[in-house]
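## retry 2 of 3
previous attempt timed out at serialization; input unchanged, resubmitting
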Amino acid sequence: MSDESFQHVIRKRRSVRKFEPGRSVDRDVLSRIVDCGRWAPSGANVQCWDFIVVDDPQVRDDVTEVFRQQAQRLVDHAKGFPAVKKTYLANTVAIIIVLGDPRWRVCFPQPTTPGWEAEYQDNNEAIFLCSLGAAIQNIQLGVAAEGLTSAWLSGGGEDVTNRALSDLLGYPEWMKAYGTIPIGYPAATQNRRYRRPLQQSLHWNGYQANQYRTHEQVDFYESSLRPFAMYRDEEFLESWGDRVEKLGEWDDAFTTVNSNPGGTLQQAEDFSSPRTLGQATKRRNNK
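## retry succeeded, writing output
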């Protein structure tokens, strides 16, 4: 494959949630897709994953029901998140579950000096999750290379959902479904979703403070812009017909090179939960 072809595969990957019903795909194709995940890099080369491919219609329907309930829990207990129904999983040709096996974390750097426990425990977790993320992304690209499409369901790793999947699919409950990848034929062509401008996220020879995204921009994205940036089929915010309405005072911050013209960097703050209430997240008040 030429470099140009590889770039094309990356750009044609889509997160699709509407598939053509009644289609099927050979297991040879699915095996090639999973093999892409197998070749992902991992910390200490531990390959801390297993891949469950669900292509039996009945098992697929059972997995779909698990995620239908998971979606309802989001509606009930994570108000304000722009969740989507998971019923579209019924039209997939297969669903790949990427399991993370935490036993292999013992192979990553371990603290041996008092006072350094947190340093290496946090690093240990990062290596584990990054390794799984690399495998999931490789599978996504393998799907695109085969002319199919997919999505990445981060749901599955929550304890309640994972227990249901463990009971259904037979893996140990202490493993987790960190990635769920539905695969199918798209029912409609989708354009590229919003991407932050390259010139805003690319830094040469050091971090450029004028490209920093402020706390206030993060708050605005979470409270007002997120559901539109997640689901609209437009790569460039400049293409939005209601751009002025949706972006308002934050237009330059999200569409130009300089997201932070003043160049001031901020101290860490608590972003463990939503901090503001915006137009798109008013449902958080309806508890």
